[in-house]
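hey so u asked for the seq, here:
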Amino acid sequence: MKIVLTLLLLFFSLQAKVIDKIAIVVNDIPITTYDIEKMTKQTKDKNIAIETLINKALIKSAIKEKGIYVDDFDVENKMEEIAKRNHMSLFDFKTMLIKKGELDSLKEQIKKQLEINKLISYYNKRVTRDDIQNYYDSHKNEFIVAQKIDATVYSSNNPNILKQVKENPLLNSSNVEMKDMSFDYNQTNPKLMLFLSKVKTNSFSKIAPIAPNKFSLFYVTKKEGNITLPFNAAASIIYEKLSNKQNQKAIQDLISKLKAKADIQFLN
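ran it, structure tokens below
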């Protein structure tokens, strides 16, 4: 019996090694068959999964080459920034994450993003005030908002339930909080007013993250008046838009440059 058990354990051990083996090496960074299988489940396409993993390895290699380092202090500062945006103290924010078992994963996610941001800063041109002003002057129609908006707000920690609400507004769920609210231009975040103003009357908005692990769906019932956001109110929105656009382009350009000089080996 012991011999049979030993043989079975050896068989499964060998099978595991066969299944999870190195498939690609990018600048000495290995990508395994398990990595590819796991990413394919997300992308639903093996070729896209392989390209995604190669790009990640290229970025990781470049971060190492540049000697980029993000310490715990950088991560804490970013977490405090996220907490403030959600009207929470850092202590309360971290306590909430600990209860949900999400603190370590968020820290790791923030660290990776900060590393990428530092890498991009080597190659990316900063968005200037003139860039923001020029965009505002030539795209003022994008910043027309309603002065007052009435909406029914559905909130939940599960975006999938909100998808069901969108399909069936009469759905009754204990996991959804529903509230009728009025949003006034003078008292509401300009970004939210802009978001709601683009939703047609008697229609649902997209599901939006409004806090850590909390999402909202807005059903706009009424809009009154129109006003163009002044430059000072629109500037942060434009900065975020231009920065994201430039970052995406910078990453694409960077990956192309890294790929051109990278040592990428596909193993059988």
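Confidence is low (pLDDT under 50) at residues 4-18. The CA atoms of residues 84 and 102 lie 18 Å apart.
lmk if thats what u needed
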